[in-house]
Amino acid sequence: EIPLRLVGSEMCIRDRDEAFVGALERLFAGPMRGLEVLVLGDRTVDPRLAGHVAALPRLRSLTLEGCRHDEAALDHLAAGPFASLTDLHVQRWAPSSIDALLESSWFGRLEALSLRGCSLDGPWVERVFDDPSVSNLRALDLGVNLLGVDALCALLTSPALVRLEHLTMDRLEQDDPSWAPLEQRVARMAALEAALERGTMFVAGVAK
Description:
The protein has helices at residues 18-29, 47-54, 71-79, 95-102, 122-128, 149-157, 179-198; strands spanning 4-7, 10-13, 37-41, 44-45, 61-65, 68-69, 87-91, 112-116, 139-141, 166-168, 202-203, 206-207. The chain is α/β, with parallel strands linked by helices. It has an 8-stranded mixed beta sheet, with no helix packed on it. Strands 4-6 form a two-stranded parallel sheet. Strand 11 and strand 12 (206-207) form a beta hairpin. It starts with a strand and ends with a strand.
């Protein structure tokens, strides 16, 4: 696999190579400052690079795929301006590392957020997505996390997610006892919609 791929204003780095970390620093500080899409995949986020990445003025989409990182790199990412960033895709990060990014000044500007395979649980999801900082999100991907129906309901009823248009969740816990009442509510809603389409609605046994 090619460790580095550059297409137009998009760069993808799939492997760590100490030999070109210095070169990347110079690119990010000069010729590559116009990058708009950056993918860092399965490699260590070098603290020296993290600061340059966070300062890229036109970067609108950042993907961190299973990246290993130290506290210094995380601090650079959280403190960086990310002036144009609207899409953040994170895979296989610990919730504690994600928490550090949530407190950044740029997080509230995100419109698309993907946190796939990050070992998220229901209480974490309910806490984070009830915060006003997520109010600009239009797309949210929480796939490959074992979340129950309570987390799903919390997302669907969150007053903070007023602009959310796309929600992706999979691997939901099928043995969650809360599924039964949820399925009953969905069935009742479907029956209600069907009745409205037929022009007939029954309230307290009286046809309207």
